[in-house]
Amino acid sequence: MINTLTEPNLNRIDQSILTSSHSQPAVSNITQYNSLPGSDLSVTAWSPEVAKLAGTEGDFSERFNLIYQALQQTTTDVFIAPEYYWNQHGNTLTPFTTDQKNQLLEQLKELSTNQPDRLVIPGSIVWHDNENQGIVHNSAFVFLNGEQLQDKNGLDRYDKLDLDYEDRTFPSLNWGGGTQAGFDVNFNGKNVRIEICSDNGISDEHKPSLSSEIDLNLVLSSKIGSPHQNTKVGGSTVVCDGEGWSNQYEKAPPRQQPANLIAQFSDYLPEELRDKFIPRFRHQEILMKHVPEDILREHKPEWYPPPANSQRV
């Protein structure tokens, strides 16, 4: 289950134009996942503690340089950064204006140009929409070879459907108008899904495609718990969290339900037990009492042979 904690507060401010810098800040918390099950793709998850980074109130160049350095340190197929990378500082979110967001996108496209054939998801961007009553968006943009990608439904960005904020600042929960919980693209012949935090837990009916069709699930998060693994069996989910950690999960086959041995061996049971509901925790006791040992040995229930301290009645 998803475990989203208190989200940062929102603080609207005017911010300066993005600037360039020649500084080379140190970058840590980079994890490389190679030849991931289900896709054979390699992923770099850069998971800084976003709240502890320098603020973006006046100069965005430091965070831009940080992500530049992180990109330079590995050469994997995919690069991801966490939710709120652009614009959390401490417990505050500072949304970009629409113009500032557009400036940043142009710089990120240029950054992607220098990462040939690499899928780049540089964290989510918080911005307010000047043309829509100042609504605040928490958006992920996906880049490849300097181009901003569209998903399978033709959308050029993915807005998180933030349930915590639906009545306040982020867009209201509305499944119409192309809104969807996730962003699916085909990359190197593999189906890749990008999700932001709690959208990972929304059911398939509101996703661009069935999870069983997804080879690789990338989750940008902030204070997420154990993720849903929205992939095919054998696919991989990579979480990149702004609390300073990342992890990779492989989707295992569903556990087979144990056979109903009471029904299977009903012929050995007394008449009064054959049509009676028997709780599963009593199955071993009853079967050990009434079913011949050689029959049990042949069918090998998961608990057979019985524990050494048990005995037949």
Report on the structure:
This is CN hydrolase domain-containing protein. It comes from Spartinivicinus marinus. The strands form 4 sheets. The chain has a 6-stranded mixed sheet, with helices on one face. The chain is of the alpha/beta class and 313 residues long. The two termini are 43 Å apart. It has 2 domains: 242 residues, Nitrilase/N-carbamoyl-D-aminoacid amidohydrolase; 57 residues, no CATH class. A hairpin with a 2-residue loop joins strand 13 and strand 14. The chain is elongated. The N terminus is likely disordered.
Give the helix/strand layout:
Layout: E1 9-10, E2 30-33, E3 43-46, H1 61-72, E4 78-81, E5 88-89, E6 92-93, H2 98-113, E7 119-122, E8 124-128, E9 136-140, E10 143-144, E11 147-148, E12 158-159, E13 183-187, E14 190-196, E15 216-221, E16 236-241, E17 245-250, H3 261-264, H4 271-274, H5 283-290, H6 293-299
Parallel strand pairs: 1-6, 3-4, 4-7, 14-15, 15-16
Antiparallel strand pairs: 2-3, 5-6, 7-10, 8-9, 9-12, 10-11, 13-14, 16-17
